[in-house]
Structure to design on (208 residues):
């Protein structure tokens, strides 16, 4: 597992000491300079053994800056989010939910975002919320964009105060746009975009 740091020559690499290992203690993290000048060992929060996964219950890892990182693990029937603000030297539990995030956490240098919902085994979801917080992971703000009750085809991106959510459905695509850090959203039903699932949004894509 590799998490690059945008705009820098650094990356964070998760590795396993042995392919035969299924214990979270066998998983390690290093900060690597991709120019080849070296690497240094970093810390992970406690991980648990999970059947079929070399990384234990580690689900996702992302860094918005060299110092600020976000790591999710599965915990029972829910998810826990750990935050570091010192380059993975220490981690702090900042969020525990009873539902799984739709996707990996998305973070900018200004804020961190996650979409949560209560989902059945068939991928039908309810009680969807967009959660956002400053880089420290506290306090959290919650909003409720009117997402369709199907988990598949969801995309999330943010830049500055703008947040976009794209949700691809069998017959159409729903687009949501916020200009206030996700507090409120405008939405469009883009049924004419036949192949919208192949599109993506970037930091410069500020016009709909």
């Amino acid at each position: 597992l590799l998490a690059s740091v945008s705009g820098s020559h650094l990356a964070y690499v998760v590795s396993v000491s042995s392919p035969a290992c299924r214990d979270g203690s066998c998983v390690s993290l290093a900060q690597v300079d991709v120019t080849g000048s070296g690497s240094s060992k970093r810390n992970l929060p406690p991980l648990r053994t999970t059947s079929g996964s070399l990384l234990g219950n580690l689900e996702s890892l992302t860094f918005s800056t060299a110092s600020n990182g976000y790591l999710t693990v599965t915990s029972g029937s829910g998810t826990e989010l750990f935050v570091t603000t010192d380059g993975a030297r220490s981690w702090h539990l900042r969020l525990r939910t009873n539902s799984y995030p739709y996707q990996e956490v998305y973070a900018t240098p200004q804020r961190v975002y996650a979409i949560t919902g209560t989902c059945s085994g068939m991928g039908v979801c309810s009680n969807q919320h967009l959660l956002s917080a400053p880089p420290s992971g506290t306090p959290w703000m919650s909003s409720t964009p009117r997402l369709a009750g199907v988990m598949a085809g969801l995309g999330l991106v943010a830049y500055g105060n703008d947040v976009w959510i794209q949700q691809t459905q069998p017959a159409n695509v729903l687009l949501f746009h916020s200009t206030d850090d996700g507090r409120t959203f405008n939405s469009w039903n883009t049924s004419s975009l036949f192949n919208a699932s192949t599109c993506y949004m970037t930091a410069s894509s500020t016009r709909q």
Remarks:
- The chain has no helices and 16 strands.
- Confidence is low (pLDDT under 50) at residues 192-200, 203-208.
